[in-house]
Design brief:
The protein is α+β, with helices and mostly antiparallel strands and 393 residues long. Helix content is 32%, strand content 18%. It has one domain: Chorismate synthase, AroC fold. It is built from 12 helices and 17 strands. Strands 8-7-9-15-10 form a 5-stranded antiparallel β-sheet. A 4-stranded antiparallel β-sheet has the order 1-2-6-3, covered by helices on one side. The protein is globular and about 75 Å long.
């Protein structure tokens, strides 16, 4: 079983990701891991924090001589901004007068709920852990899941389909989406330049108004064979696991598999994907079963069906705004404006990268569960045997 956890605060000394269950022998391409971390930091509308941090993975355990060794992988990401916060957030008692309190909770953030839950006098500690800075550690963990999936010819990429009121008005091909990950300049990670230019105008409008704007990203997993997940028990369903994983990301308020939202307003004859059978295996496909379209998003009955897996995440606008909403002071309960902390205007491309990591972790875990293997060669033998089985079906 592949599991992961993260630790660390937004302005603490470092973030840490701990990943267990990656089999021995997976090539640990740290350039790839660092590239994934770089991608998470890009995008038009990001805040000043991205100019401070240059995330790089420092692997502490689980990798030797360039390959995983089957033991837990510990990854540290240094927070360069820590030097500005050491006296404000010390591990020791320190000087309480230097504590930088978050005096009024921000609507839409975890500030108030977290302070009430943990009996904090202000929301500083809530902000530190609830911050989307934590997603950097998820991306590091997900990069190792991607490296495993790559050995099975499974690739994962994302793109932005909406920012504010501007939406991509056509379907994107896999090659277009995959190509975005190799670009050296990331604006809003949309495959269509004209649509991306209009999306940029939405971000500009929010910036000038002291507001924030978000939208919708789409993650596509390409090359996933039929048979991952299960309909047998509720918590084994692939779509449920994907929804949980993506929904757990900061600011995601809804998750869609395939054309789920449109399907809710359509007739079955227009929603379900017809099944065809080819005389020979189509190139790049493990089975002869084909579909003319993929409204199901690659998942039927909680099981992958061999089509691309398509997951969309719907992001609320960032809750920290330069023109803050009404709030109440923690100490006096008097009306005031919500606290302001340096933040972003738009994070849709970055959230898509973090969602790629979460999708990769789900799929890697299910692949390990189905194909077993303590080493990569053992897992691949089992995987290839299964592919031969479904090819002959």
């Amino acid at each position: 079983m592949i599991r992961f956890s993260t630790a660390g605060e937004s302005h603490g000394e470092a973030l840490v990701a701990l990943v267990s269950g990656i089999p021995a022998g997976v090539p640990a391409d740290l350039d790839f891991v660092n590239r994934e971390l770089w991608r998470r930091q890009q995008g038009y509308g990001r805040g000043g924090r991205m100019k401070i941090e240059t995330d790089r993975a420092h692997v502490l355990s689980g990798v030797r001589h360039g390959k995983t060794i089957g033991s837990p992988i510990a990854i540290q990401l240094e927070n360069r901004d820590w030097k500005n916060w050491q006296e404000k957030l010390p591990v020791e008692a320190g000087d309480p007068a230097k504590h930088r309190a978050v005096v009024s909770p921000r609507p839409g953030h975890a500030d108030l709920a977290g302070a009430l839950k943990y009996n904090f006098p202000d929301a500083r500690y809530v902000l530190e852990r609830a911050s989307a800075r934590e997603s950097a550690a998820r991306v590091a963990a997900g990069a190792f899941a991607k490296l495993l999936l790559r050995e099975l010819d499974i690739e994962i990429a994302s793109h932005v389909i909406r920012v504010g009121r501007v939406e991509l008005d056509r379907d994107a091909a896999w090659k277009e989406i995959a190509a975005l990950a190799g670009k050296e300049e990331v604006v809003l990670a949309c495959v269509d330049p004209a649509a991306e230019a209009r999306m940029k105008e939405e971000v500009d409008a929010a910036t000038h108004a002291g507001d924030t704007v978000n939208g919708v990203f789409e993650v596509v997993a390409h090359g996933v064979p039929a048979g991952l997940g299960s309909y047998a028990n509720w918590d084994e369903r692939l779509d449920g696991q994907l929804a949980w994983a993506v929904m757990s990301l900061q600011a995601v308020k809804a998750v869609e598999i395939g054309r789920g939202v449109a399907a809710a307003a359509s007739f079955g004859s227009r929603v379900h994907d017809p099944i065809h059978y080819a005389a020979e295996n189509p190139p790049g496909r493990p089975t002869r079963f084909t579909r003319p379209h993929n409204n199901a998003g690659g998942v039927e009955g909680g099981v992958s069906n061999g089509e691309d897996i398509v997951v969309r995440g719907y992001l609320k606008p960032i809750s920290t705004m330069r023109q803050p909403l009404e709030s109440v002071r923690f100490d006096t309960r008097e009306p005031t404006s919500a606290s302001y902390e340096r933040s972003d205007i738009c994070v849709v491309p970055a959230a898509g990268v973090a969602a790629e990591a979460m999708v990769a972790l789900v799929l890697a875990n299910l692949a390990r569960e189905k194909f077993g293997g303590d080493s990569l060669p053992e897992l691949k033998r089992n995987f290839l045997g299964y592919i031969e089985q479904i090819r002959s079906y």
